[in-house]
Design brief:
The protein is an alpha+beta fold. The chain has one domain. About 40% of the residues lie in helices and about 20% in strands. It contains 4 helices and 8 strands; from the N terminus they run H-E-E-E-E-E-E-H-E-E-H-H. The chain has a 6-stranded mixed beta sheet, with helices on one face. A two-stranded antiparallel ribbon has the order 3-4. The longest helix has 24 residues. The N terminus is likely disordered. The structure holds iron/sulfur cluster. Iron/sulfur cluster binds next to helix 4.
Length: about 170
């Protein structure tokens, strides 16, 4: 029984290590599970807008903390094992909008699920990956059919559109 438990523990560790490695290869930060106190969360009156990028969005909440403004995106339902790429990019776009609007770069944003919160670091790599994605979306916006742009099964595994996507790799 002890051997079985140890083997399972080792397997869990290997899977965790592998998924972390795949995520790093895709250039996205993993989420850090954090505890948050919702009492300091403030609702936003109007969406944020950045003309040059043609980007607009309304985080569910903003938190003022130690001179920073942290965006919060609320997702209904239980948290996935690790946040979906689409949720990370959505939050990253709010971080970008907060920086452009208030002139302060948030160190991270928060994804709030029913049972767990993740802090997503707003790194330079995430920002550059977001800007690439926005440029790609702009290029593709008038096309009816857009082909998958990668060969990363790990990305599809974490994608919120996987169930309806006919190009999913998993
Ligand atoms: S499931 Fe489809 S939309 Fe999602 S990452 Fe894979 S190819 Fe892209």
């Amino acid at each position: 029984m002890l051997y079985l438990s140890l083997a399972l523990l080792l397997l869990a560790f290997l899977l965790f290590w592998q998924s972390n490695r795949q995520r790093k290869a895709a250039g996205l930060p993993g989420g850090r599970v954090i505890y948050t106190d919702t009492r300091g969360w403030g609702k936003l009156e109007r969406p944020l807008f950045h003309q040059a990028l043609g980007l607009t969005g309304k985080p569910d909440y903003l938190i003022q903390q130690n001179g920073q403004i942290i965006p919060v995106e609320v997702k209904s339902g239980r948290a996935p094992e690790s946040p979906y790429d689409s949720h990370i990019y959505q939050l990253a776009s709010y971080c970008l909008l907060v920086e452009k609007t208030y002139g302060k770069r948030p160190a991270y944003g928060i994804l709030h699920y029913d049972n767990r919160d993740f802090a997503i670091d707003y790194t330079r790599e995430l920002e550059s990956s977001l800007l690439d994605l926005l440029a790609e979306m702009k290029r593709d916006e008038h096309r009816k059919e857009v082909a998958r742009s990668h060969e990363q099964a790990s990305r599809c595994a974490r994608c919120g559109f996987r169930k309806i996507c006919d190009q999913s790799l998993v």
